[in-house]
Specification:
Layout lengths: L7 H8 L5 H11 L9 H16 L6 H12 L3 E2 L4 H7 L5 E2 L1
Parallel strand pairs: 1-2
Helix pairs in contact: 3-4
Length: 98
Amino acid sequence: MQDIVLIGITLQKILQNFRQESTFKKVASYFEAFPLLSVTRSDFVTAAKLRRQATAKGLSLSTPNCQIAAVALNHHCHLLTTDKDFSNIAKWLPLQLI
């Protein structure tokens, strides 16, 4: 069995979409069960490299998505997502998607 972890930007991206305060609080409380993985300098450097490589390939990736992908790559994590940015990244980097 593998652990489920989050990084701060992922938690923020999820929570910021809830308009009702009661829903926001409920979902935030559910996510308290999952530890936050620390983002390191190396992760930010990898994210910058990833963004530069994507741009060279004609792809437009958001900075937060580059950070998320970089952390997943550097820490050998599987990434649960439906965002097509990550599918595009997985075509040219060993990003493991669920």
